Give the backbone structure.
Amino acid sequence: MTEYWVSQGNKWCDLCKIFISNNPFSIRTHELGKRHKDNVTQRLSTMQKDGAAKEKEQQQAAKALQLIEAKAKKSYQKDLENNQRNTDGDSSAAPGEVVHLLSSEPDGHITAGQCDC
């Protein structure tokens, strides 16, 4: 039987955005060419810059998060101190316990006290 001719097709080079004949000689010739080597160098450079920018952004985000946490902790300590001063006369409130200074009674009167939350 005779064999039918089949096209080898073309190979796409993602770096150069061109089609190359799909045979070893054409592929090797293209990959050793100046245009392809320049495109590889440019792609590697871009990847390094993107990686450095992403790492810098992550470091800035981590720094901002640490700053926010530090401010929140300082504010929490300040609130605890204020709460302690406000409840010094009331010995039933434990340190760190939530105290509602104003609570509504079922009959509509507003009184000072603690809740069971």
Remarks:
- The chain has a mean pLDDT of 84.
- Residues 10-86 form one domain.
- The beta strands are 10-13, 18-21, 103-104, 110-111.
- Residues 54 and 114 are 49 Å apart (CA to CA).
